[in-house]
């Protein structure tokens, strides 16, 4: 199904747009309308409406270039094109097996009135759930290489909306979300308190990161982000706390420049997803649709998976990444002195491999396997890790053979300590090493200040770096799970081997800091996850008393909610993050993790409200089985789940893992009950969810039980 | 011969130094004396004397750190050590076969009086031709990782000396030298006019580069530079044009920081070479002696050589580096359209190989062999070159086989266009490629602004980059000839595979610009060459009418002077830079280039005056043959060359290639005469040298003629 209709408006109409009182050019689809015009000074502006309600009004567009600060003034409209587009495509993996890409496209061709008469086009795509637009710098005599000083794009809102936001930090997205009115945005106040984040760079007190989730007083849900961030810095939003105008703020390079470009060039898409239903925000595929198709031709080797790892034990202080306590001491032979707490030792790794093999978990991640961890953090230095030298107690060859014999996939870990220069220096060698030892995936990490010094995690140079790593990984048929990288923008459509990113506040904060509030996971799908999957590392069963030296620390959910997260927080890479012994203490609950898949044919958002609750049902890839996750914030509630998505007339077995009656994230988090029912598509489940709680549900056709569950 | 005597001064003496009127601590050797003391504020100062005359007076020492701006105030002397050292060592290649390293060492141990009582040592080495000193940050609790904000080192001169200087540019050393009084130093005036240098960054109007050559009114020759520049930025000198105090000025990084360090750390050596004889400056081995011995254990594969190259024809506009004229046009099949002027085509390369083989020239350099040259320069972009993709008309395998069969060594060319990030990304691959095709050497290039953007050619990050490349080259047994890198500091002792650098204004400026004045080559040995060999590319025979589209352009020397440069400008890599056809037109003169070696057992500086003239005799490695080069500036002169260095009682055949009577660099540069004589050690040659002229001389024992010359 593919249909394009192009209608070229006449130049006469285009010419009319120069007059002050002219009607704007319009594109629309269903309830969404986009208006574009040039203002009396010849500056481009746009507006967005949903169901007749203004969403974005009189918002500027354009650029200042380093060598042309007036680039976007005194423009004239030389042509307008309009086209309708409707097709469907199949992602390599995802929440659904087929994605419809349906929009009306409006392209405005702009030209400077005066010499050098530079050209810029703006392409709008109006979907039924919002608007995406990008700038295109065509090949032209007057503009070849150029440097962006400022992107002028605005998103001017109509009121003091409720916002779910984190500060506009150049180097991290790992803040807790603040829920406040736009007028109350204060990134400095938040950043100052966020002492559990090591590197915090928030130059603008009133800048917020995207995806930014908003809710208007008149019931609109609005999400602002970007799609296809390639060769360009991440966009943050400066909030005018008085008039609620938001302006693009690009993360600069070491010199304060924003982007070094070469025409022809297309910017990332700026995305405005809007609906009067919160669920529609979570269902939106606009960001994926605005990304380019896969550049990887053979994708057979790309497989979603669950994994366990030698990791939580370090996060909680039970063992260490490092082999020795210091680089400064050595034994008589000049070797490091083992500290006896090194987690990535061969015996311990084999224990995780055994556990994975026994429970049908596909992968095992091992951190701290390679030399460098004695002095790796916080000193902004290069050449800490070489990515190919294991510690003496990590038998890389023996472990590879052991895992292979057990049918378990090893996941490589490449922590760069922020020195991207070092990683690039070793990239060829590092990926050859993974191939040699049969690692099909790598978790990358960028903890600390970036080198090249002066660059930021979210600037153009690093955005290009992450893409280079994804490309190099694809060349070596390796899947990527990037941590501390820029937040995703749907680029996993183009690089389906880039399965997931952290790039947000994961479960780990409950291990090494005071953690995240109970509403955290109800906000993430509306914010961080809008751009792509997150390696959140759910599945913690021991929710108190796990942190060495911090007995008061606890995870801010119930155990049942940890199960629900495998459904509500979509990712093709899902960790079972807790220790094998903690799973073995609750094998009945662990059964859900064993069964829940990491790839889906279909997804239904049953109910959702950002900051409050989310219930999602998903149908397993190539299966008739459904899985439901339902979570709440700090308030208890009853989830009502109509099973109307099930096949009519069929009977199903339903298994509900939910909070016990006396469960409570704070006082009694590990109390859960498991119940089994029979159901049909007419059934409506009513499940009591505790404060900070959740429920996880498996549904399978009754005639099909034995074949599917293992 | 190795002798060390250590005498520990008592703490009582050290304590005395705190008083204002205390005698300084002294070290000396022959005519050179060094004094050190703490001033009344506890700041370290030093002075240097030669034969009782003050050279440097009351000059500050020390640092400001980013986190300790008062690091060098309120210091106290905790210990003083003194030792004598005398040994000899043999370089892998060089101007002499044995080098004596003879000095008295004074180490002052300093400590902050107040908490955190940080430690810093200053180590002075007093040689008979000057003083070197460095700072040592010992391992200590109060200082682990630190950032240098400013190095306070001064070199306070006693008067308004005559100086041979180039501006303190962060990115280039390719200026013509200005000869002026210190009071007249104005880097901006020079930089503004130097339009033949593409990237010029001179933030300080009164900064000059090192090596800085000075001559005082009272007859002292003084050279200030540094030795063993490792993991630190290059030092420039800020000139106070009123009181002639010079201060260290370190090239900053993108953020304005100077150096990121980790104790224990030793800075480069600051060097002050001084004599009342100009020749002693050229004879000094202090800078080499202050470098560490070779880190390469097996040096058998490192061989000095002469080479020709597909290069001057591009410099002069006869052919092009690029295969096509534009990346924007393609033929029907999508391939680049050949411009028909591509120099590095297989047939032309084989012509150079034939010429080299026929004339006993060891190597052939080929530039423009790899894709990327259509749009490589001036746009500050990455990923132009991948260092392993030849143009379609360059048969890399066929050429490698052809050269091997002819006994000729191919020299790889890796131009980075300033993008060090790109080069590091491909470094492993690039060197494997050289090994695969049997290239024993590589010419690297860094034309343009550096990436990482904001870094400079001469900053710490790039200094580390050049060393990484040298190390990687050594790992692959490849020799390095680096262009547009930082000027050398004797590091070729430590990395003897790093044969030469450009890092100065080479002969190429006579090809693509209006060139260099006739005194240029009389200044270079006193400045640029003090730190190490230069790939100057001498040997141009066609001195007028060579530049396409610039018929008035000419080289500013005579032909005989081009021959002399092979001796006066020492390098283990010497290019015969002109086209084969221009050599074939003067085969009698070319005979000298065929015979002159690139490695020596001994060197005698016969006469020298910076900016005026230089005459040097050198004895070929493993041979009884001597070679002499004598050059002048724009003034004609008569060189008087006593052959007293020859063995007494032996007879020698002498062949003199000199300017014809009517030769003149400007009007008649290609007029030369070749004469033969017999001589003994009692002979004094008197040779007329034209304006801008020179003479080249071969001397061989009479009983030995046939065996040596070929």
Automatic annotation (TrEMBL), chains A, B:
<dbReference type="InterPro" id="IPR052720">
    <property type="entry name" value="Glycosyl_hydrolase_97"/>
</dbReference>
<feature type="domain" description="Glycosyl-hydrolase 97 C-terminal oligomerisation">
    <location>
        <begin position="599"/>
        <end position="699"/>
    </location>
</feature>
<keyword id="KW-0106">Calcium</keyword>
<dbReference type="GO" id="GO:0016787">
    <property type="term" value="F:hydrolase activity"/>
</dbReference>
<feature type="domain" description="Glycosyl-hydrolase 97 catalytic">
    <location>
        <begin position="311"/>
        <end position="503"/>
    </location>
</feature>
<dbReference type="Pfam" id="PF14508">
    <property type="entry name" value="GH97_N"/>
</dbReference>
<keyword id="KW-0732">Signal</keyword>
<dbReference type="InterPro" id="IPR019563">
    <property type="entry name" value="GH97_catalytic"/>
</dbReference>
<feature type="signal peptide">
    <location>
        <begin position="1"/>
        <end position="19"/>
    </location>
</feature>
<dbReference type="InterPro" id="IPR017853">
    <property type="entry name" value="GH"/>
</dbReference>
<dbReference type="InterPro" id="IPR014718">
    <property type="entry name" value="GH-type_carb-bd"/>
</dbReference>
<protein>
    <submittedName>
        <fullName>Glycosyl hydrolase family 97</fullName>
    </submittedName>
</protein>
<dbReference type="InterPro" id="IPR029486">
    <property type="entry name" value="GH97_N"/>
</dbReference>
<feature type="domain" description="Glycosyl-hydrolase 97 N-terminal">
    <location>
        <begin position="31"/>
        <end position="293"/>
    </location>
</feature>
<dbReference type="InterPro" id="IPR029483">
    <property type="entry name" value="GH97_C"/>
</dbReference>
<comment type="subunit">
    <text>Monomer.</text>
</comment>
<keyword id="KW-0378">Hydrolase</keyword>
<dbReference type="Pfam" id="PF10566">
    <property type="entry name" value="Glyco_hydro_97"/>
</dbReference>
<dbReference type="InterPro" id="IPR013785">
    <property type="entry name" value="Aldolase_TIM"/>
</dbReference>
<dbReference type="Pfam" id="PF14509">
    <property type="entry name" value="GH97_C"/>
</dbReference>
<dbReference type="GO" id="GO:0030246">
    <property type="term" value="F:carbohydrate binding"/>
</dbReference>
């Amino acid at each position: 199904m593919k249909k394009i209709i192009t209608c070229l408006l006449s130049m006469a109409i285009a010419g009319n747009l120069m007059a002050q009182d002219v009607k704007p050019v319009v594109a629309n689809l269903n309830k969404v309308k986009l208006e574009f015009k040039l203002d009396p000074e010849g500056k481009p502006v746009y507006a967005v409406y949903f169901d007749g309600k203004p969403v974005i009004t009189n918002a500027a567009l354009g650029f200042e270039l380093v060598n042309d600060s007036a680039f976007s003034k005194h423009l004239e409209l030389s042509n307008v094109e309009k086209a309708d587009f409707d097709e469907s495509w199949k992602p390599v993996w995802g929440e659904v097996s087929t994605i419809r890409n349906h929009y009306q496209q409006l392209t405005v061709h702009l030209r400077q009135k005066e010499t050098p008469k530079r050209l810029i086009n703006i392409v709008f795509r109006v979907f039924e759930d919002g608007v995406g637009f990008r700038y295109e710098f065509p090949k032209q005599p007057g503009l070849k290489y150029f440097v962006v000083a400022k992107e002028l794009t605005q998103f001017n809102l109509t009121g003091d909306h409720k916002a779910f936001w984190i500060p506009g930090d150049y180097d991290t997205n790992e803040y807790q979300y603040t829920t406040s009115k736009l007028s109350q945005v204060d990134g400095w106040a938040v950043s100052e308190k966020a002492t559990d984040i090591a590197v915090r760079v928030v130059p603008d007190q009133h800048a917020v990161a995207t995806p930014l989730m908003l809710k208007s007083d008149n019931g609109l849900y609005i999400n602002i982000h970007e799609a296809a961030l390639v060769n360009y810095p991440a966009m943050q939003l400066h909030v005018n706390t008085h008039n609620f105008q938001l302006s693009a703020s690009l993360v600069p390079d070491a010199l304060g420049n924003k982007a070094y470009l070469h025409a022809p060039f297309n910017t990332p898409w700026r995305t405005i997803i809007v609906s009067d239903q919160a669920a529609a925000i979570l269902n939106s595929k606009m960001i994926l649709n605005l990304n380019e198709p896969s550049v990887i031709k053979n994708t057979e080797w790309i497989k979603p998976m669950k994994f366990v790892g030698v990791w939580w034990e370090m996060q909680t202080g039970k063992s260490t990444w490092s082999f020795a306590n210091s680089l400064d001491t050595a034994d008589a032979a000049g070797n490091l002195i083992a500290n006896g707490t090194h987690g990535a030792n061969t015996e311990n790794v084999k224990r995780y491999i055994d556990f994975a093999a026994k429970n049908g978990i596909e992968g095992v991640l091992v951190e701290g396997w390679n030399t460098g961890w004695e002095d790796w953090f916080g000193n902004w230095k290069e050449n800490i890790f070489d990515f190919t030298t294991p510690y003496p107690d990590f038998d890389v060859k023996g472990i590879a053979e052991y895992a292979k014999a057990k049918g378990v996939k090893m996941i490589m870990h490449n922590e760069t300590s922020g020195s991207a220069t070092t990683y690039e220096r070793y990239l060829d060698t590092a990926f050859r090493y993974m191939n040699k030892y049969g690692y099909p995936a790598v978790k990358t990490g960028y903890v600390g200040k970036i080198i090249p010094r002066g660059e930021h995690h979210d600037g153009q140079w690093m955005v290009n770096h992450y893409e280079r790593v994804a490309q190099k990984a694809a060349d070596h048929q390796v899947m990527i799970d990037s941590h501390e990288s820029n937040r995703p923008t749907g680029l996993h459509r183009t690089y389906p081997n880039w399965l997931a990113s952290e790039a947000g506040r994961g479960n780990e904060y409950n291990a090494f800091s005071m953690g995240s509030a109970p509403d955290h996971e109800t906000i993430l799908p509306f914010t961080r996850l809008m751009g792509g999957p997150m390696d959140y590392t759910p599945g913690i069963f021991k929710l108190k008393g796990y942190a060495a030296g911090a007995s008061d620390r606890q995870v801010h959910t119930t155990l049942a909610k940890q199960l629900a997260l495998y459904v509500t927080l979509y990712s093709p890479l899902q960790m079972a993050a807790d220790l094998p012994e903690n799973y073995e203490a609750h094998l009945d609950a662990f059964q859900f993790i064993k069964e829940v898949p990491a790839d889906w044919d279909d997804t239904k958002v049953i109910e959702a409200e950002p900051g409050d609750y989310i219930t999602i049902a998903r149908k397993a890839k190539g299966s008739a089985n459904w899985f439901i996750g339902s979570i709440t914030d700090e308030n208890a509630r009853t989830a009502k789940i109509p099973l109307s998505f099930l096949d009519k007339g069929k009977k199903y077995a339903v298994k509900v893992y939910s909070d016990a009656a006396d469960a409570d994230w704070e006082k009694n988090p590990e109390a859960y009950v498991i119940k089994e029912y029979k159901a049909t598509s007419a059934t409506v489940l009513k499940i009591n969810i505790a404060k900070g709680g959740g429920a996880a549900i498996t549904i399978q056709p009754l005639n099909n039980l034995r074949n599917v569950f293992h």
